RNA sequence: UGAGCUGGUCCAGGCAAUCGCGCGUUCGCUUCCUGGCGAACGUGAGGAAAGUCCGGGCUCCACAGGACAGGGCGCCAGGUAAUCCCUGGGGGGCGUGAGCCCACGGAAAGUGCAGCAGAGAGCAGACCGCCGCGCUGAAAGGCGUGGCAAGGGUGAAACGGUGCGGUAAGAGCGCACCGCGAGCGUUGGCAACAACCUCGGCUAGGCAAACCCCGCCCGGAGCAAGGCCAAAUAGGAGUCAUGGCGCGGUCCGCGUCCGACUCGGGUAGGCUGCUUCAGGCGACCGGUGACGGUCGUCGCAGAUGAAUGAUUGCCCACGACAGAACCCGGCUUAUGGACCGGCUCACCAC
């Protein structure tokens, strides 16, 4: 069975790591309301960072839902990803968050990022 | 049975399987140490966590005392750590009623404000009107002059109301009742206030979330508070070594640069503050009640790029508002459902 654990070492937490990814990314992608930037790291596995602004989604309940959804899709897809630091940013408001969690665009992003990793 | 008023309690989809997350305890492995990894067990958002509108605790800063400015509060008593909160009471308004609502000190200290209508809007006023007298006219009436404000009309509001007497017509002009004011009157009440008595013929309209006056209260900032540890770079202080250069004829010495070491300040970053309390639950006691007291019992999130999720199946028959960020007590606002009282009105039956 593959390791699906998603601990602290799998996250982009430090400010300098964040800035490095955002300022000098190696790849940019977009899907639906999400913007993805990534930069190769030396950790040997993929790491995730999140940006969900208050001005995009007002209520903290909805922000938490979006973050959980991103983390969960990352967790299921991370073993097929290259060793990169990824930052996912929600760029435009998602009005119907309540009914449908936006998993399809996220899964599409992970697929494309995996393909980018295997063919440099 | 219907309509309605009101007080309170509880839940916040459930179960199972798999994959995951934060924190704590224990154990194991690893590591020079800080620590890292793994396992087991425990635990893990709200009634509003929200708005940040009040009140405290806590922390730092300021502070001899007083006055002014500025702001807040405003019937009385109690509760409380404290309040603009809560409880009980008083007064006023609304409702048939249960009940609900009230920023509820002062307008005989001053200043100010009041559209339209209306004759007149503050120690006012006479448009229609009422009455006396004079002149005129056959009369109805008209003109002049004086008295008046009852009735009409305007207005949110017109300088007490109703009735009787009185009068030329009228008027607190007189009387009765009601209203209003005064007494530091009597009685009841801790008090707000109420009831009664005596006096006053009415003088003193409204607005103080208009200025204002009176009484009471208030220092400022907030956990990004505050405390500790502390890279790199630049700069500071000191010590040492004496190497170069300068002032000296030389030595000593002084200045300066470089080097080594030490010290303090301090940024990134890390740690702490950080969850055990004005704490929950139960029993008994005191109190109309808010609440208080005694005893017993329980341990209940502490994240920090920020933890509660995902998938599948079944069930109730579809789940609203919504996410802790130093902590409490209130208020306000949003919101799905279940249950238990108390009371009022209407109708029917007895």
Which CATH class is shown?
Alpha Beta
CATH topology name, in short, is Ribosomal Protein S5, domain 2
Number of helices: 3
The share of residues in helices is: 25-40%
Strand percentage: 15-25%
Shape: globular
Description:
This protein is an alpha+beta fold and 120 residues long. The chain has one domain (8-118): Ribosomal Protein S5, domain 2. It has helices spanning 15-23, 60-77, 103-118; strands at residues 27-31, 34-40, 47-51, 84-90. Strands 1-2-4-3 form a four-stranded mixed beta sheet, sandwiched between helices. Helix 2 (60-77) packs parallel to helix 3 (103-118). The model has no long low-confidence stretch (mean pLDDT 78). It binds one RNA strand of 350 nucleotides through helix 1, strand 3 and helix 2.
Secondary structure layout:
Elements: H1 15-23, E1 27-31, E2 34-40, E3 47-51, H2 60-77, E4 84-90, H3 103-118
The structure holds one RNA strand of 350 nucleotides.
């Amino acid at each position: 069975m593959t390791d699906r654990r998603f601990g602290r070492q799998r996250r982009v937490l430090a400010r300098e790591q964040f800035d490095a990814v955002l300022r000098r990314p190696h790849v940019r992608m977009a899907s639906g309301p999400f913007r993805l930037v990534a930069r190769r790291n030396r950790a040997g596995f993929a790491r995730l960072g999140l940006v969900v602004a208050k001005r995009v989604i007002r209520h903290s309940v909805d922000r938490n839902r979006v973050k959980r959804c991103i983390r969960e899709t990352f967790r299921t897809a991370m073993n097929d990803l290259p060793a990169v630091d990824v930052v996912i940013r929600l760029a435009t408001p998602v009005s119907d968050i309540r009914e449908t969690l936006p998993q399809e665009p996220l899964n599409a992003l992970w697929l494309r990022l995996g393909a980018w990793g295997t063919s440099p």
